[in-house]
Amino acid sequence: MAAGLSAPGARADDTLSPESARAVVEQASRPSAPWAGPAAGPPAPPGKVVAVLAEDLRNGGVLSVAQGIREAARDIGWVVRVYDAGGTPAGRKRAVADALAAKPDGLAICGSDAYELLSALREGGGRLPPVVGWHAAAGAGPVDGTPVAINVTTDPIAVARTTAMAAVAQSGGKAGVVIFTDSRFRIATAKAEAMAEVIRRCSGCALLEVRDVAISDSATRMPAVTRELLTRHGARWTHALAINDIYFDYAVPMLMSMGVPNAHLSLLSAGDGSAPAFMRIRAGSYQTGTVAEPLNMQGWQVVDELNRLMQGQPVSGFVAPVHLITASNISTEGGSRQIYDPANGYRNAYLRIWKGQ
């Protein structure tokens, strides 16, 4: 099992039924509600410079949030500079140093653990600019003990539970589950623990194992790991749950080469709703769901939170609701572009704030 995962037994009075799981899945699959984020805030002065510290631009979630930040910044005349850490400790240290040396007006940490970056941020010397994170901690809101004023994310525990509920609902309460996580990141460990807890609550389900694979190593490790798991668990393995779609990018080719029928293994991801994940779901190629983050919208939120901080105002603290993408709803709300882009009017809402309208 992954480091930090506990193994409590399910309580008899806390058993999860397939019907209860199905109700959660149906709720998460509905169309987006109208905009419920901030409606007021400070105007955005032009000419600000934002440094984006990207954990690894090979990660579709990180890349899409960075693109959302660029899109939002362009509309208010801000400059965005992206520093790619490449998923390594040395890369993080270099990216932090380069970002701070540019003396930006604001810093966005995308996908890196805020606590792991503390020493590098302190080594930069001088006063830090306002800092906003995306998936930089295990939950939404301020990250205590760090300069991150707010971590932008869908509630990761709700995301993880919804993903696991989908496996319970699909299997009629008989799923055999392997969970993929990356214990280097608190948000990944929290998601894995939440998924494991749901599976344990399903009396007819089996948590076969939790496999710790670094996201940055997924390309090299996942083919062999997938083969090993198929050999070990055979037909008992019916569902794979992952903290990120990227694991499946490298598992699916092995499943195909081994002749595993699509119907024999369902892949479900607790983030982030990557383009390859959309394509697999649309094609019916193993992956049946992803709890997609509204990545572009979250990029806009990062810009809004930075603007509030730059103007000496508190952050909005907005948390987007959970949304499950499946074959039944994949053609809506950006699905034709292989993304989840809520049809809730967020762009206009933020622009009205920034332009003082």
Q: Which key features would you list for this structure?
A:
357 residues, alpha/beta, 6-stranded mixed beta sheet, 5-stranded parallel beta sheet, single chain
Short structural summary:
The chain has helices spanning 18-28, 60-75, 89-101, 118-123, 156-171, 186-201, 218-233, 246-257, 275-283, 295-310, 346-354, and strands spanning 49-54, 79-84, 106-110, 131-134, 148-152, 176-181, 206-212, 239-242, 266-269, 287-291, 324-325. With 357 residues, the chain is α/β, with parallel strands linked by helices. It is globular and about 60 Å long.
Walkthrough of the structure:
The protein is an alpha/beta fold and 357 residues long. It is built from eleven helices and eleven strands. It has helices at residues 18-28, 60-75, 89-101, 118-123, 156-171, 186-201, 218-233, 246-257, 275-283, 295-310, 346-354, and strands at 49-54, 79-84, 106-110, 131-134, 148-152, 176-181, 206-212, 239-242, 266-269, 287-291, 324-325. The strands form two sheets. A six-stranded mixed beta sheet has the order 7-6-8-9-10-11. Strands 2-1-3-4-5 form a five-stranded parallel beta sheet. The longest helix has 16 residues, at 60-75. Mean pLDDT is 94; it is low at 1-12.
